Fold these 2 entries.
Entry 1:
Amino acid sequence: MSDGLKQRVVTAIILLIALIALTLFTRPFIFAAVVAVIVALAAWEWAAFVGIEGIALRGSYTLALFVMLMAAASISGFSGSADTSISYQVVLILGLGLLWWCIAAFLLIGYPENSAAWNNKFKISLMGLLALVPTWTGLVALKYALPSGYLVLGVVIMVAGVDIGAYFVGRFLGARPLAPRLSPNKTWEGVLGGLVTCCAVSALLLLGAHRYLFELRPPQVSILLLSCAITTLFAVVGDLLESMLKRNSNLKDSGSALPGHGGILDRIDALLAVTPSSVIIMMLTLDQVH
């Protein structure tokens, strides 16, 4: 095993342990605070996509994102208690995020011919806010809805399933390029592999939830399994959008915070795009919206 691969594996193991500990063993308020710090660090990296240079200016963009997180927390009714359910205000914030990711899909289709329509500092800054704030809101809402953290881990594991399935199937069976101008290594076969893996892990998650957490009716199971297609779609969109922004900024990675993996955005790009739709579908299906 090469030194680079060893470093990547070690970092992945540490991240996995930290994720499980954060999700399962913290109270919702602490979870929200820690995830806010992670999202703020991601905003710092996003500033590089914008072309913002200097500690003061990048710090200002990060601070603006943090203020918006606090506003989202206030609107959503997040507090120190652990009995907060998903509100329609949360769904509204997630809906704005979902709208943005639908627009992002069209930007990818028209790239690079449409670059002049979005390639300015204001619009790329707004992209970051629309990507990061709804993701934080959705993950925190899931933690409040089920403090055990199972729903949060479910979303993360589904996204990881897409990523892992796409990587291995694409590597060994990939033949038809998906978006050669954005990411030459991604293939349609990889997307199919990601979908199949997502469906498999989702079935296991639903089985575990049904046996140990709450009863699931057949229509609920069907809807949640079918939503794997949406999860896979947005995971691909999130991955490709970050590739587009890195190409636009002449960056190889979004940052260097994670040895062997690049920046934080390099690890959560798919999660950013998946969270709004997944949380909306999950909460409406499980009757968690009031």
Note: The two ends are 51 Å apart (CA to CA).
Entry 2:
Amino acid sequence: MAKKAGLGRGLDALFADAAPVDERWRPDDANAAEEASKADAAENEDRVLYIDINDIRPNSAQPRKNFDEVKLGELASSIKTNGVIQPLIVRESTNGYELVAGERRWRAARTAGLRTVPCIVRNFDDKQNAIVAIIENMQREDLDPIEEALGLKSMTEKYGFTQEQVSASLGRSRTYITNSIRLLKLPEEIQQYVSSGQMSAAHGRTIINIPDKARQKEIADKIIRNDLSVRATERLAEKVKDELRPERKRRKRASDADKAKTAEITAVERELMTLLGTKVNITGDESKGKIELEYYSLDELNRLIDAMREAFK
């Protein structure tokens, strides 16, 4: 029985282009290829075997959802001329084989009309199958930011990886992992903007913390319509967050007003505070303004009223 391959061997071992190719059959002889494949799979798990393309089905854990049809067509043209240079990675399933890595090559090979494709058969369990599919796509930079975020979330939530383990597996920092997964907090429509490249992941992260989903969508549309930079988006997002926090904005205005007070007004505030025994705040300018007196109980309010009545007699 072939030994189970571990992830620790690295992708270089998984995708070894130099693996021996068994050429005892012609690649277009599907029946002979399948018989030889089954026999040789048990002998050498690193041997490249030609397998009937119709006996291979896509990876159910494939994180990549979008395939560029134009680029697939270009790859299919190349395959017609040069064949499939790098083997697909597959594992045995109930009815044939399941792809572990190489779905883009498999799709292009079908378009090119190939009957068989070169494969390496590996004895992966479901967890290894899913993880290798994610790692392969990320190392090849084939995933858009949302697909990548979904793959990383799957590694941590479905397969129990810690963020440290994900970081070590992918060679990415924990901060990168965290920021990537945060994109999934965006509304689905905005995620689609990021996925399609209409706005960047950095733009998406900038508007995540805006508490109103409608305002998030409003800013996302403005990013696309006006081709806003990330820095401009940050400024706009801060402005919107201030608008959605009226108390914070009121405190800011009060603070700004305090800074603008003259020494004379400050002195009057202190004088009234001494006379009335409570905090006094004067705001406004030479033409208009207001005087605020603070009280903290009904008795204190009555005391202030009596003090003012006495002052105006």
Note: The first helix runs from residue 11 to 14.
